[in-house]
């Protein structure tokens, strides 16, 4: 397609990666990873995130409290904290590297090889950022499901369930992975456009020469 050029693909990859990074950043600090409400007390809703828990009541509203000790957190939340911070850091680095490697940007001018390597680096970092977002979200989702179906808890006891941040985390992680893949596609498209003109091999040239000679004799 005419409009699908390497420059357009680069901009699309940058846009998708930026959207995934913003979504992952919001997910990191959003206290909606898990929710819990009790049938015995329907006016109270509990929300849990990586950094604090919140309680919503109709009389007071939302009240949040940070976790007092990191060591007191469950292992899945400790791992998720580290991985989400790594995701945000690598995602930001991916954007910086990719912006410098974009065509039409006044950086690294006259160095197409360096721009190509920066785009590849941006794609790799975006992949790492996406995977380090999907991993903690999936880990917390798994532990939530295991605890929800634990037969050791009484039936009347409320259970933690998925919160909205879980779904935004999956969306952000997938967007980062897709953005990194589009950077690789843009590099391949650029390499294809800059390929040297194809030269026929000797066998083909010899066959064509014989064909021309036969035509002249006839």
How many beta-strand runs? Answer: 5
Shape: elongated
- Helix/sheet category: alpha+beta
> Mind telling me the C-alpha Rg?
27 Å
Unreliable segments of 5+ consecutive residues: 212-218
Percentage beta strand:
5-15%
Biggest β-sheet, characterized? 5 strands, antiparallel
Helical stretch count? 5
How are the strands ordered across the major sheet? 4-3-2-1-5
Intertermini distance:
44 Å
N-to-C SSE string, H for helix and E for strand: HEEEEHHEHH
Q: How would you portray this structure in words?
A:
This protein is of the alpha+beta class and 218 residues long. It is 61% helix and 11% strand. The protein is built from 5 helices and 5 strands, in the order H-E-E-E-E-H-H-E-H-H. The chain has helices spanning 6-29, 75-101, 112-148, 164-193, 202-217; strands spanning 34-37, 44-48, 52-57, 61-66, 161-162. The protein has a 5-stranded antiparallel beta sheet with strand order 4-3-2-1-5. It is elongated and about 75 Å long. Residues 212-218 have low confidence and may be disordered.
């Amino acid at each position: 397609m005419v409009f699908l050029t390497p420059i357009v693909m680069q901009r699309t990859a940058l846009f998708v990666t930026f959207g995934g990074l913003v979504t992952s950043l919001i997910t990191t600090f959003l206290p909606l990873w898990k929710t819990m409400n009790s049938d015995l007390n329907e006016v109270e809703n509990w929300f849990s995130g990586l950094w604090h828990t919140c309680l919503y009541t109709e009389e007071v509203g939302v009240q949040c409290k940070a976790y007092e000790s990191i060591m007191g957190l469950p292992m899945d939340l400790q791992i998720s904290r580290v991985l989400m911070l790594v995701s945000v850091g690598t995602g930001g680095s991916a954007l910086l590297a990719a912006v410098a490697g974009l065509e039409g940007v006044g950086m690294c001018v006259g160095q197409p090889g360096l721009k190509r390597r920066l785009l590849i680096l941006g794609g790799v970092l975006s992949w790492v950022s996406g995977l380090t977002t999907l991993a903690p979200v999936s880990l917390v989702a798994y532990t939530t499901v295991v605890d929800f179906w634990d037969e050791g808890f009484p039936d009347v006891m409320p259970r933690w369930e998925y919160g909205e941040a879980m779904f935004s985390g999956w969306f952000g992680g997938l967007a980062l992975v897709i953005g990194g893949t589009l950077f690789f596609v843009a590099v391949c498209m650029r390499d294809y456009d800059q390929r040297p003109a194809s030269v026929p091999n000797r066998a083909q040239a010899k066959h064509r020469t014989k064909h021309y000679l036969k035509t002249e004799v006839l």
